[in-house]
Structures are given as C-alpha cells and as structure tokens.
Design goal:
The two termini are about 15 Å apart. By secondary structure, the chain is α+β, with helices and mostly antiparallel strands. It is built from three helices and four strands.
C-alpha cells in the first residue's frame, strides 16, 4: 500500500533563494534514483511567501525510511537545516488511488 508524506517548510526570508535549488535537487535525485519514490512534488504559493509544500509518495513506509538514508537526502538535510524556520510533517497511507 502506498505511503504519502506531506511536508510544509517555512524558510527564513534571507535563505529563500538558496533553499529552492537544494530542494529541487533533492526531489529530482529522489525520483531518478529511488525505485520506491513514486512522486515528489515541490510546491510554492505566492499567498504564502517563504513556504514550500512537498507531496511525496512512496511504495511503502520502508521506501520512505530508505529515502531518509540516501546521500542526496542527507546532503540536503545538512545544507538546508539552518535555512528552515519551521517544518511540519504528516504521513498517510493510501486508501484509494486511481490508475489511469
């Protein structure tokens, strides 16, 4: 059963421009190198400056836990840590998914 992760970051305003490329590189590496990563969306909203919303879907919880041990995630986490003012994480198991 799929495992979804929703993360909202609030970024220190002075770090905004430096944070986005780090986040995009992490998302790209996740989708390109992790077989268990099915989706990794990075979203921003002009009405909420300095916030980034992530929507990630993995094959299962184990795939997400493996993601957090990858070198690209560890590098992102180390580089971005001080840029983040606040972070919330919610996880969900997939109950329904429509396949097109």
């Amino acid at each position: 059963m799929a495992y979804a992760v929703a993360v909202t970051f609030t970024i220190h305003p002075q770090e905004w421009e430096a944070f986005l490329p780090l986040m995009q590189a992490n998302a790209t590496a996740s989708q390109e190198t992790e077989a268990g990563c099915l989706r990794f969306d990075v979203c921003t909203d002009a009405d909420h400056p300095h916030q980034v919303f992530l929507y990630e879907v993995y094959t299962d919880r184990a795939a997400f836990e493996a993601h957090m041990k990858t070198s690209h995630f560890e590098a992102f986490n180390a580089a971005a840590g001080k840029m983040i003012a606040d972070k919330s994480i919610r996880t969900y198991r997939s109950v329904f998914h429509r396949h097109d």
